[in-house]
Amino acid sequence: MENTAAEVRARPQDLLLALGGALVLDRYEQPLPTRVFLDALRPLGVSDDAVRSTLTRLTERNLLTRHQDGRVASYGLTDRSHRLLREGRERVEATEPFHQPSSDWTLLSFSLPETHRDVRNRLRSRLAWAGFGCLRDGLWIAPGRVDVDRIVDVRAEVEGTLQIDGFVATPTADTDVARFVRRAWDLDALRREHEEFIRRWSGPAPQGLDPVALFTLHGADWIRLLRQDPVLPGQHLGEDWPAPRSADVHRAVVAGIEASAHAAFADLVADARARR
């Protein structure tokens, strides 16, 4: 893990969301002073200005609430972020996050005007998190049975202009499913992502590195890998597929640093609140 922090490229938003899901959710119901987030991300090379601007953007997206007490600003989770982070936690903490038990496939087609490009980008991000790959523009496919209504949470923002259809399908006997898989996902690139994750996070944790920063960075990197892996049926993957090893490495990292990360984060919170 010696060069892990330098190798992982995570946006401040991804780091803050990883921190929120791992260290804040269900533990700190009261808003936390800005200093907590500054102190948590500063060891990762994130500037204070970048943290503050990201907190503002997340507030504008109704993922954080902002509270002002004199000169001290604090931020808390919203109902929306509670729901999204809990949904994400289901897969983050899954026992077998890359095992696909179903032989069914979910197909989804959507249409959205160009004027809603930002909503389209968020919808595509949600689809990717749910395991969808794009067969062609507007037509997406995912292994297994996906609850489309659960992941499509943007309808209220587009005032009825979103047209979306989803259905579960079973391939016919003469369908070349492997061809669809290769069209929708780059399996060679996905294998490399798993192998790089294993290389980065294998072995003992480096001594002296802030446990909050390390735990947050690992969480963001793990979520990125989960977002990239659609959890395809094993018969469509190559020999010695590395995903199970990625899951083993992830569990080992969490077991090694989770307790110290929670303790160190509690110290950050206590110190920030004492300085108010």
From TrEMBL:
Per the database record, which ranges form the Transcriptional repressor PaaX-like central Cas2-like domain? 103-170
Question: Which domain of life, per UniProt?
Answer: Bacteria
Which Gene3D superfamilies has this protein been placed in?
A: 3.30.70.2650, Winged helix-like DNA-binding domain superfamily/Winged helix DNA-binding domain
Question: The Transcriptional repressor PaaX-like C-terminal domain covers which part of the protein?
Answer: 185-265
Which terms under GO biological process does the entry name?
DNA-templated transcription
**Domain Transcriptional repressor PaaX-like N-terminal residues, every copy:** 38-80
Q: Which PANTHER family match?
A: PHENYLACETIC ACID REGULATOR-RELATED TRANSCRIPTIONAL REPRESSOR (PTHR30319), TRANSCRIPTIONAL REPRESSOR PAAX (PTHR30319:SF1)
Name of the protein in its database record: PaaX family transcriptional regulator
